[in-house]
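Good morning,

Both structures are done.
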Amino acid sequence: MRAHALIAATLLITWPVLASADLATTRVLQQSLQRLHNAQRSGPAIPPETLSRLHETLQMMTRDQIDSRLFQVDKAIFDARMAGLQAQRQRSHQQTSLHKLQEQVQSLSKQHQALQSEYAQLRQQLASKTMTGAQTQHLQAEIQQQKQMLQAEEQHLANLAKQPQSTVSPPPSSSVSSSNAALPSYGKALTVYAQVRAASDGVHVSMPADSLFGSDNRLSQDGEQRLQAISRILKQSNVREILVRVAPQPLGANVATQRAESILRSLRRNGVPDQSLALATGSGLPAGSAELLLVNTSPTS
């Protein structure tokens, strides 16, 4: 409004000159004045230096109305400066929009990082719960097996107590019991996971091969868990040599060798010393069986 009043005052001062000016020229001057007025009202504040130059150009247009050539030059300067003001405002608007977009991108990046971190934590919690659940199921299975063995032994003792002393005969499993009695402490612990017997050449730990392997001759999940449990016991023993044996398979000796190598690698992964592990032939083993022969051990350790 102040600029509009300034231009209006200039027009009043030069009124005698306007009397001889062309009406079309006067109309152009009024339109230019209105353009500046609209620019001041519709947009952000015009920089003082730019506004001063626009005022100066309008004063020149007012003064040069009587000379059409000078007036056209003044008008061209005014139009150029107005175009420059418009371009300046557009750049400012674009910079403001770009700054807002950058802030949005930064905000989205932070949200993405937060979500990634939360997702990683959830995966870790899920993995921990899954592992805990698997360990719990394994322990429950071991406890149930121990309960069954204890119940069977209690039932056997109860049956013996009911019989007359003179008619009590050794149970069919007496040879197995005597064999178990000769087992070292770790051998007795292994009976939870396999058939164990002591012999002159060492302690034999036998398992059905199907309980360790799937249909593709790879260790099954149950087989891996069983070997993990066996490895924990072996690591606490004084076993100096462990021979891994697998009975020849219908598909050939090569399959038996591959299975034996898989068992050996599993024991090694679970911490059994590599220098104590070795492969041995499975000849003489019952069909479909796998065995760990623990040699060079003390039967009482």
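Second structure follows.
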Amino acid sequence: MMINSVGHHHHMVVDLRAELAGRGWDAKLYASRDCDPTIRAMAAAACFDHLPRIRIYPMPEADIGAVNYRFQQSLESITPRIEPGDTVFVTLAGHRNLFGILGWLEAMEPERRPRVALMLAAAECFVDFKDTVHNRNSRIFQTVCRAIAGLFIGTGMPAPLFFTPSAFYTDHLASLFGPDVAIGSFPYSFQRSTGVVAALAVPPRVGLFGNTGWVQKGLERFLEAAQILLAEREGVRFFTQIDFSLEPAAASASAGGRLAGYRDVLDHSAVTVSSGPLEPADYDAQLSRCALAVLPYGPSYRRMHSGILFEALHRGRPVVLPAHSQVACDAAALGIAMPVFTEWSGAGVAAAIRDGLDHYPLYEAEARRASNLVDRLPSGGERLAALLTGTEGL
């Protein structure tokens, strides 16, 4: 995400560094030694020899232990750079590096320990999208996070900060941690418009944006919906960003096969296709020109937020949402109504798009009302900076 200048991780780093600088805090970014030039240009200290996604051994137990140990060694490489009062924010902490973080902290003299903030990869606590708990991983999070918190009890030092991606995961881990370990939902950052919002395209355009390489993003459902709507009505246009760049190489290699059945849509004169990541300015303009943004997401989004929802609403654009999802809950929390689909299928998504277009003045008014609310919200970077500097509590 940081390499492509897209998504919440990129916006988080950019926003957070700016907010911390405004508060008089210095921010150093530590990355792997083979990091991309884009990340190096952000003044990253390329010092990590190992990251938790990299596999070492085929046997899971041995691999988990080895990866944690290697991650601990990488953390130890930055210990000489840490001063009393510093905070270390690990942006992805899961069962493949939590033990390493604990081992690193335990090996330090108590007065040398920095405050730690951990973004927990809490999806690892579940086997599937049906709330089946992954007992081993949940026990790892419970045991290690409680142990990390225990290192700071009675020391007079600030307690660790634990975050999860959504309220769903926060509730699960809070039930495991108990009242002595505070945990909150992560304050997401999203890309705000950099200037005057571009005018709507005429005829109206319906758009899909983001990392469409992941099946749960619903690229196929969107293309199926476009097939249906292009056959039944004139005067509608579609824009689709097809971006597999954030997915593993195997997934990217299968792109041709996944798209083979949709050539009639992708080659249609009323459909504009953008391949790969969009530059922030281009993304801003393309999203602003869409009458409707579509989030044709699958079951995983019952637990997950989406920055695109807030990016579209910020620009006064309605959004098609899955009814049973965290993003629908986020829209409801703003007190607005958006077109929704209840069935994750091409027909279901097409029906929601049809509703959005047929009742556009209603949904546009709702989106513009939401825009005023979103504009008044502090950015994710502001809230995160306040948490990390101790001026706001979880």
